[in-house]
Amino acid sequence: MISKVDLVMWTKNGAQTLPVVLKRISEVVPQEFVNKKIIVDDASTDGTQHIASSFGWQVIPNKGTGISEGANTALEKVTSDFFISFEQDLLLAFDWWQKIPPLLENPTVAVSSGMRFADKPVGVKKMQEYVGKKYRGEANLSSWLKSRDMSAFTLGKTLDNTIYKAKIIRQLGGFPKLPVNAGVDTTLAYKISHAGYQWIVDYKVRSVHLRKGLKQELDHQFWYGAQLYEICRKIRTETNIPPPATRLGVIRRFVISPFTGLFMAVQTREATVLYIHPLIRFYYLKGLLQSSKVSKIR
């Protein structure tokens, strides 16, 4: 079904991980199927642009800043019926090409992707693996979490190992335009569902999210929490769906996090989860509470 695909990526000072990331892409996606390779760079000051060019990628400047603008700048350059997006810190699974693109053969499927798990620290990786199993509804795993519809719905729906039907993404107005630099994938997932299409995730395809350690993960949680209002507002504006997350919900998850951390530590047999999980919940809540618009989340 797929004859040619365009490859797109948005970068910002990604020189540390980019060589291994681009090498893996070239190993996984057969060259005979590749039409264009486009990197939208956000004014990198390291060797990102040089590295990208050395791997045969066309480098163009981001028309704006951040992921939302970068994704739409890339989309403007796409000429194939299908395109794949990657991020600069994603090591693509070797079985990705064989398993993910065929999912688009279903006419109702607009987007498909695999899972990605952090390489470090081990506690974060174990937590992510556990959540991946749990939200798939396995009967022997914490049934009390199955009610978390947003988390289950968006699990695996990221922009870093993902193939799209270009026509449908354009019909939806391109990638969601957010004033913040998070939630593009979450908002897109809701828009796709609202339009009657599917975003299918193969939970058995496991790519690697290259991380620096726990501090980076905590900083990311703070960053995401601080932008939650804008993400929820955009979802509500685009789909008329009530905000999928609330301030009270975030607070409640933090309050019970010592208990859920203990539960997951036992389930994963990884002691560091005992403190990593409450820390993640704390930084997420801290970001939310420091957001100037937090009072508008109800």
Give a written overview of the molecule:
The protein has 13 helices and 8 strands. It is of the alpha/beta class and 298 residues long. The protein has a domain at 89-293. It has an 8-stranded mixed beta sheet with strand order 3-2-1-4-7-6-8-5. α8 runs parallel beside α10 (228-239). The chain is globular and about 50 Å long. Residues 294-298 have low confidence and may be disordered.
Query: Structural class of the helix and strand makeup?
Result: alpha/beta
The secondary-structure element order is: EHEHEHEEHEHHEHHEHHHHH
Radius of gyration: 19 Å
Overall geometry: globular
Strand content: 15-25%
Short note summarizing the structure:
This protein is α/β, with parallel strands linked by helices.
Topology of helices and strands:
Blueprint: E1 5-11, H1 18-28, E2 34-41, H2 48-54, E3 58-61, H3 66-77, E4 82-87, E5 90-91, H4 96-99, E6 109-118, H5 122-134, H6 149-154, E7 161-165, H7 166-171, H8 184-194, E8 198-209, H9 214-226, H10 228-239, H11 247-255, H12 257-268, H13 273-290
Parallel strand pairs: 1-2, 1-4, 2-3, 6-8
Antiparallel strand pairs: 4-7, 5-8, 6-7
Helix pairs in contact: 8-10, 9-13, 11-13, 12-13
Summary tags:
globular, 8-stranded mixed beta sheet, 18% strand, alpha/beta, 8 strands, 298 residues
